[in-house]
Amino acid sequence: MEEKIASQQLDKNIKGWIGYRPRIKVFDCTIRDGGLMNDHKFDVKIVRSVYDALVAGGIDYMEVGYKSSKKIFTTDKFGSWKYSDEEEIRKLFGEREAGIKISVMADAERTDYRTDILTKSESAIDMIRVATYIHQIPTALDMIKDAHDKGYETTVNLMAISTVPENEIDAALEALAGSEVEVIYLVDSFGSLYLEQVQNLTRKYLSYAEPAGKQVGIHAHNNTQLAYANTITALIEGANFLDATLDGMGRGAGNCALELLIGFLHNPKFHVRPLLKCLQENIYRLKTELNWGYQIPYMITGQLNQHPRAAINFLKSDKRENLVDFYDQIIEEQ
What we know:
Layout: H1 2-18, E1 25-28, H2 30-34, H3 44-57, E2 61-66, H4 86-93, E3 101-107, H5 113-116, E4 127-132, H6 137-149, E5 153-158, H7 166-177, E6 183-188, H8 195-209, E7 215-220, H9 227-237, E8 241-244, H10 258-265, H11 273-290, H12 296-303, H13 309-316, H14 323-333
């Protein structure tokens, strides 16, 4: 009997591995997350090439940038994708291809969302993603309602979750489950979570989201080279919205690599060749300028559950090869 049960479970696992889950949505954050490294000053040709590659690759969403307040973030310092103005989006994409949706991120307390986010009928944007720290939940809830009432799809990214006590996570998830938001994202901001933690947290998020008719997403960072593995772990547990970027492009150690992820998903709607063409012609050139990806200083901050800013600054310094000094400094400041 035990052998029969084991055989049935094996058959189920094999069927799951060679099949695919149609509900899964793949979300590209290359331009938005990558913009954190160059103050969102991407050439329009780069943005358009990424867009064209994503359309041809069958990707579901493209996040083009932020909706940031021009009162807080001055336009003389940042590029246009810090603000994602409607005219910029329309000028670049024109009549958009069917099948891919455009998203922007709005940080709690850093955006004039009531005025800068138009009603959906006036906008080229499909989704508003609200990013919030635990102490900003009341503001985030108001932003979610505002975007929902204006007609947008909505998600919420609960950031730096690895630093939040469990009872506060529960309280936040309960509040978000009662809101208008459609997708609640598990975000490993510091790239410090391990597979077992992602597994348990995904189950926790689902326990609040599913009874409320909501879905769960995952946004992973690669400080300890686990962004891809953690994304797959969340997927297996039931997360349906998966964030990734071309070649893992993103601040510091970067993110889950898009080309890796779609290969795992087995869904015939996704195509890797257009992504490889974009990588070859555009992204690899950017990598030499922006220098993202796994490096030892990011490992150190990730393992110590710290924001990568110290590692970013260290790698820009003339002492960037002195790893032991950096490690000692970080440990001292713990």
